[in-house]
């Protein structure tokens, strides 16, 4: 179950050739600095700007999205560039994790899933990340303009992801405002977390992510 009106998002995906563009999110673009290869799970993959970037870097990527149109576009863009990616149409809260990934990412999606499943889903994401693996999450915070408008969505406290990942090495943590140009110009209050599963033989080396 999701709050998101899947009909509406599908219409948007149908109307526009590429809703979110094909340039990767700037934090996703930094993943290859911290991990060189492996398996990636992209939750809320959309049209695949992040997934396809990581495929091009040599990662083996599976993308999940509740919208069939989004996944069709992901596969279409992949085919056009002769890239290999797996696309699954599914509510991500129903995804049955049966193995661990090197990287799990979810960009601008987790605040859209069933409110009562968000924290449980983040716990699953963590427990299905390999030792030394990476999680990258971006979510809307309670400062976002939508917080009052959409009481059924899960807007995060600014420190919430940091708390949830306090047993991991935090490589990047930032609350910021992003100007959006899709539709009417507007801005979102976003929190980004990049964290590394310390695994069994942790060290505290520092990473310089911009
Ligand atoms: C704002 S878009 C971001 C897409 C992509 N992550 C990107 O950065 O370009 C959010 C995506 O999450 C998907 N989504 C929303 N709720 C979902 C759910 N419960 N399960 C899977 N996908 C979901 C939407 O269909 C949409 O494609």
What does it look like?
The chain is built from seven helices and seven strands; from the N terminus they run ααβαβαββαβααββ. It has 210 residues and is α/β, with parallel strands linked by helices. It has a single domain, classed as Vaccinia Virus protein VP39 (Rossmann fold). Helix 3 links the parallel strand 1 and strand 2. The longest helix has 13 residues. The chain starts with 5 loop residues before the first helix and ends in a 14-residue tail after the last strand. About 3% of the residues have low confidence. The structure holds S-adenosylmethionine. The site of S-adenosylmethionine has 23 residues, from helix 3 and strand 2.
What series of H and E elements makes up the topology?
HHEHEHEEHEHHEE
> Can you list the ligands bound to this structure?
S-adenosylmethionine
**Unreliably modeled segments:** 201-206
Largest sheet: 7 strands, mixed
- Radius of gyration, rounded? 16 Å
Helix residue percentage: 25-40%
Number of helices: 7
CATH architecture: 3-Layer(aba) Sandwich
Output the CATH homologous superfamily. Vaccinia Virus protein VP39
CATH topology category name: Rossmann fold
Brief summary:
Helix content is 26%, strand content 27%. By secondary structure, the chain is α/β, with parallel strands linked by helices. The protein has a single domain, classed as Vaccinia Virus protein VP39 (Rossmann fold).
